[in-house]
Amino acid sequence: MASSRTLGTFRLPPLPTIREIIKLFRLQAVKQLSQNFLLDLRLTDKIVRKAGNLTNAYVYEVGPGPGGITRSILNAGVAELLVVEKDSRFIPGLQRLTATTGSKQRSRLSIMAQYLCDVQHILTIPGQAFVPKPEVDSAVVHFTPLTRPRIEQPFKLVEKVVQNAFQFRRKYCHRGLGMLFPEARRLESTGELLELADVDPTLRPAQLTVSHFKSLCDVYRKMCDEDPHLFAYNFREELRQKSEKRG
Fold first, then answer.
1. In terms of DSSP bridges, do strands 117-125 and 58-62 run parallel, antiparallel, or are they unpaired?
2. Are 193 and 223 in contact (CB under 8 A)?
3. What beta strand segments (E) does 73-187 contain?
4. Residue 139: band (very low, low, confident or very high) from pLDDT cuts 50, 70, 90
5. Distance of alpha carbon 225 from alpha carbon 79, whole angstroms
6. pLDDT (tens digit, 9 = 90+) per residue, 175-221?
7. 3-state helix, strand, coil in the chain (%, to 5)
């Protein structure tokens, strides 16, 4: 977990691939909507190039889906991009991005977006504004990347802490955070993590603020520095090995 102490120009971490997004949200193309997901970003780049020079242009995209062509449009240096989506599977993600602490929509996506950017819900567009009328409203969300992230730890470390915290979202946060540690030391290490981070173990994941996660990540980083094997630990792998031994 070694990293440079010198902070230069901050760069956002790489986005998950379109294939990873489809897998994460268990998305399948809907025939009735004439959907086909284009995964090859070389092809989406080529499609966007055929639209001409989009530098500083204002672009309107209908049906972005998982965002393949959207990425290519953004990479073309547009001034502004407005996307309109009627498939409700892609719309709840917007609510998660802006979800506040304690809300039902609060998720790991909320934390991962909000620690890197100021995320604002600009406006809601009612379904009746569209023809034909969709079954859900639409939302416009504005991202402003931060000069320095609210959690100054490696992206993979933040992702791991947040992912573990939310995997048992209806239970107390100590349940998921405990999965960061091997079973033999889980109780002791989880208690140490929460105590040093000054986080109430009976808070549920959705009640944790970005500041809570900053403290958790900072403490977990120190624990990983003290134990070089800790970051590589995967509780699912430990379960698999135990299952094989029993078999």
1. unpaired
2. yes
3. 80-84, 117-125, 138-145
4. confident
5. 42
6. 999 999 999 999 999 999 999 999 999 999 999 999 999 999 999 99
7. 45, 10, 45
Q: Say yes or no to pLDDT of 6 above 70.
A: no
Tell me which amino acid residue 228 is.
P
Rounded CA-CA distance 177/163 in Å is: 9
Average pLDDT, the chain: 85
d(CA 177, CA 77): 40
Whether 27 contacts 21, CB under 8 Å: yes
Q: CA-to-CA distance for 65 and 36, rounded, in angstroms?
A: 9
Instruction: Please indicate whether residue 116 or residue 126 has the higher confidence score (pLDDT).
Output: 116
Measured CA angle at 158 (ends 7, 148), to 5 deg:
30
Structure tokens at 57: 């242009």
Which contacts qualify for 38-47: CB closer than 8 Å, 24 or more apart?
Answer: 38/68, 38/69, 39/68, 41/68, 41/71, 41/72, 44/68, 44/69, 44/71, 44/72, 45/72, 45/75, 47/72
Measure the CA dihedral 188/194/196/197, to 10°.
Answer: 160
Angle (CA) 21 209 4, round 5°: 70
Measured distance CA(211)–CA(197) in Å, rounded? 10
Chain centroid offset of residue 223 CA = 24
Q: How far apart are CA 178 and CA 107, in angstroms?
A: 18
The one-letter amino acid code at 171 reads K
